[in-house]
Amino acid sequence: MAQVPFMRPPDHEFLYDVGDTVEVYCDHDKNNERVRGWLKGIVVQVDPKMVAVQFRTNVYLTDGWMVPDHILWFPQHSPHIRMPARKAVAG
């Protein structure tokens, strides 16, 4: 196959990979109350447009329904999904 010259390497195809820990802004249970905020989950599926994240706690759709399998789908470039913030190391 012929080599195609480029100025810089192409972008990674996906922002997230299966197994990544991410934070998602969603409705979820915290201390037996339903709250809206950032929640850690694990990426379980990735395709060119969407990312599936699974959680250990109950999560809810925006219209209020609980998601039975604890998996929410987000667009690859959604502002509601991010890599976890790193905590400062005391030392």
Structure description:
The protein contains no helices and six strands. By secondary structure, it is mostly beta strands. Strands 1, 2, 3, 4, 5 and 6 form a six-stranded antiparallel beta sheet that branches. The protein has a domain at 21-82.
Structural class: mainly beta
- Compressed to H and E, one letter per element, the order equals EEEEEE
What low-confidence regions span 5 or more consecutive residues with pLDDT below 50? none
The amount of beta strand, in percent, is: 35-45%
Rough outline = elongated
Q: What is the end-to-end distance?
A: 52 Å
How much is the radius of gyration in Å? 17 Å
The helix count comes to 0
User: Mean of the pLDDT scores?
Assistant: 86
Question: How many strand units?
Answer: 6
Mind summarizing the main beta sheet?
6 strands, antiparallel
Helix content: under 10%
Itemize the secondary structure elements and their pairings.
Layout: E1 21-30, E2 33-46, E3 50-54, E4 59-60, E5 71-75, E6 81-82
Antiparallel strand pairs: 1-2, 1-4, 1-6, 2-3, 3-5
In short:
It contains no helices and six strands. It is mostly beta strands and 91 residues long. Strands 1, 2, 3, 4, 5 and 6 form a six-stranded antiparallel sheet that branches.
Summary tags:
91 residues, single chain, mainly beta
